[in-house]
C-alpha cells in the first residue's frame, strides 16, 4: 500500500500538483490524465527522482526518512527514456543490475524475453524509440521491485510487443502503477484501481 499525504509539487513557484491525501492499494493502478496533467511528475516524485513537499510512504516506509531503502523497492520506467548516445543498452542494464543487486539469471531472462539480445551491446544512439523503450522497461523490472512505476509503457512499441508486455506484467508479483492518457487494452493485465489526474490533483475513480 502506498500512502500519500500533504503532497505538493511546484515548478518555479507554479503549483503542478496538490494531493492532500491519497491511498493506493495493492494491485494494478491506472493513472489517467491528459498530457501535462502531472502524471509523470507524480511518478518521478514517488520514484524519488524529484523533490516534493509532503510525505510518501510504502508499507509504512517513508521516502524522505528512509530514502535509500525506499528507492530499492521502487523502480520507474520513463515515458520517453533518454540516455547518453554513447552508452550501450548493456551498460544501462548492467548499472541497474548492480544498483538493485540482481543476479545474472534474472537479467538474462529479461533480455531474452524482450528480444534485445541482437542489439543491446551497441550504442543507444543507433536505437529506434521502440528499442530504447525496451531497455528502459528491462531496467525497471530488474531487482523484483515491490512497486513498479510505468509511465506510458505502451507508447513507441508495436502492437505485438504491447500484447506481450501486458501478459508479462500480469505475471509479476509486484504492485504496478501505470500512467497513461488512454485505457489499457483488454487482456491478461487487469486494472484493480483507476485514478484521475486532473485539475492539479489526483482522485480515485474506482
UniProtKB/TrEMBL annotation:
<keyword id="KW-0813">Transport</keyword>
<dbReference type="GO" id="GO:0016887">
    <property type="term" value="F:ATP hydrolysis activity"/>
</dbReference>
<dbReference type="InterPro" id="IPR051782">
    <property type="entry name" value="ABC_Transporter_VariousFunc"/>
</dbReference>
<keyword id="KW-0067">ATP-binding</keyword>
<dbReference type="InterPro" id="IPR017871">
    <property type="entry name" value="ABC_transporter-like_CS"/>
</dbReference>
<keyword id="KW-0547">Nucleotide-binding</keyword>
<dbReference type="GO" id="GO:0005524">
    <property type="term" value="F:ATP binding"/>
</dbReference>
<dbReference type="InterPro" id="IPR027417">
    <property type="entry name" value="P-loop_NTPase"/>
</dbReference>
<protein>
    <recommendedName>
        <fullName>ABC transporter domain-containing protein</fullName>
    </recommendedName>
</protein>
<dbReference type="Pfam" id="PF00005">
    <property type="entry name" value="ABC_tran"/>
</dbReference>
<feature type="domain" description="ABC transporter">
    <location>
        <begin position="31"/>
        <end position="154"/>
    </location>
</feature>
<dbReference type="InterPro" id="IPR003439">
    <property type="entry name" value="ABC_transporter-like_ATP-bd"/>
</dbReference>
Amino acid at each position: 500500500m502506498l500512502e500519500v499525504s500533504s503532497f505538493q509539487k511546484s515548478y518555479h513557484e507554479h503549483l503542478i500538483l496538490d494531493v492532500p491525501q491519497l491511498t493506493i492499494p495493492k494491485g494494478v493502478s491506472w493513472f489517467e490524465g491528459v498530457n501535462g496533467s502531472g502524471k509523470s511528475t507524480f511518478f518521478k516524485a514517488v520514484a524519488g527522482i524529484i523533490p516534493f513537499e509532503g510525505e510518501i510512504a510504502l508499507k509504512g516506509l517513508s521516502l524522505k526518512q528512509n530514502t535509500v531503502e525506499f528507492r530499492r523497492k521502487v523502480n520507474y520506467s520513463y515515458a520517453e527514456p533518454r540516455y547518453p548516445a554513447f552508452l550501450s543498452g548493456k551498460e544501462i542494464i548492467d548499472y541497474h543490475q548492480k544498483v538493485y543487486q540482481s543476479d545474472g539469471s534474472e537479467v538474462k531472462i529479461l533480455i531474452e524475453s524482450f528480444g534485445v539480445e541482437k542489439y543491446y551491446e551497441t550504442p543507444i544512439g543507433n536505437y529506434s524509440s521502440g528499442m530504447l523503450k525496451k531497455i528502459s522497461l528491462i531496467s525497471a523490472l530488474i531487482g523484483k521491485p515491490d512497486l513498479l512505476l510505468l509511465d506510458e509503457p505502451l507508447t513507441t512499441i508495436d502492437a505485438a510487443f504491447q500484447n506481450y508486455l501486458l501478459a508479462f506484467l500480469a505475471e509479476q508479483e509486484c504492485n504496478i502503477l501505470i500512467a497513461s492518457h488512454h485505457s489499457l487494452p483488454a487482456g491478461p493485465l487487469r486494472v484493480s484501481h483507476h485514478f484521475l489526474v486532473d485539475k492539479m490533483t489526483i482522485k480515485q475513480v474506482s
